[in-house]
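Title: Comparing notes on inverse folding

I've been comparing how different people in this forum approach sequence design from structure. To keep things fair, I'm posting one structure and asking everyone to reply with a full sequence. Here's the target:
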């Protein structure tokens, strides 16, 4: 499932393409994938990119013509650049048609991904309320102390809550908690200040390292050139049998997700 580093890698890949090619159309090949604002004019194309940015796991494309598009990859979505697109791919749910016959395909086997297109002024109606951006200064030990205070829920579930911190998913939360030495099932309110400081530092580090590596290719994540990310080589506990120090990894279910941790390294 794409998390912040994967979404950032896709966005970084799409950006230079959309900076040089206008969008001539947005085609939908699966009901429910493409959601058009009901008040959009008949023909809004072509669209030229003003700005592309990320918020949590959402990509936002603002166009000079006053329209915006949000892309959410969800479970299995990916954007794939095709200089010479052929027939519709088996799992292609939508397509950004570009100048010179080029395209960016939205491939999504599980069909949970979404693309919204709307007037930019209505962004707040489409982008959900999200917590702080983990790579920004707004994620700091003061903020994390505040949101964890008195919480009985496991620290892992709280870190996954997009309303508290936007962009973290299962893989990176397993990894950062291992680095911080904190068990994923500890109550959020019981995590002490020095652990909180480590969690903040390790969150930023693990995300930055993963962005440099182009994301993690577990299951079928690919970047925009349909290549794999490389961060899976650096995973220490996620889907591992042993931690780097040779201890057996345990796997428990938290919030319905596999939670990998080392019972010796994590307290
Ligand atoms: Zn260990």
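Reply #1:
Here's my take.
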């Amino acid at each position: 499932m794409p998390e912040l580093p994967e979404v950032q890698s896709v966005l970084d890949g799409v950006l230079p393409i959309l900076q040089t090619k206008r969008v001539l159309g947005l085609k939908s090949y699966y009901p429910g994938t493409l959601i058009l604002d009901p008040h959009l004019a008949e023909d809004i194309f072509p669209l030229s990119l003003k700005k592309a940015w990320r918020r949590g796991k959402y990509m936002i494309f603002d166009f000079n013509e006053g329209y915006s598009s949000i892309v959410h990859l969800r479970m299995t979505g990916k954007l794939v650049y095709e200089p010479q697109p052929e027939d519709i791919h088996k799992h292609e749910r939508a397509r950004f048609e570009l100048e010179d016959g080029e395209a960016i395909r939205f491939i999504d086997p599980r069909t949970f991904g979404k693309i919204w297109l709307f007037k930019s002024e209505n962004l707040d109606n489409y982008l959900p309320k999200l917590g702080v951006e983990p790579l920004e200064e707004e994620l700091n030990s003061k903020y994390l102390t505040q949101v964890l205070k008195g919480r009985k829920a496991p620290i892992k579930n709280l870190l996954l809550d997009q309303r508290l911190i936007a962009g973290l998913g299962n893989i990176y939360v397993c990894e950062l908690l291992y680095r911080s030495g904190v068990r994923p099932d500890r109550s959020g309110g019981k995590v002490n200040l020095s652990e909180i400081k480590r969690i903040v530092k390790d969150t930023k580090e693990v995300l930055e390292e993963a962005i440099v590596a182009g994301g993690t290719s577990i299951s079928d994540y690919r970047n925009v050139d349909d290549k794999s990310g490389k961060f899976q080589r650096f995973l220490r506990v996620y889907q591992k049998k042993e931690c780097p120090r040779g201890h057996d990894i345990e796997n428990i279910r938290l919030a319905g997700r596999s939670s990998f941790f080392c019972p010796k390294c994590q307290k």
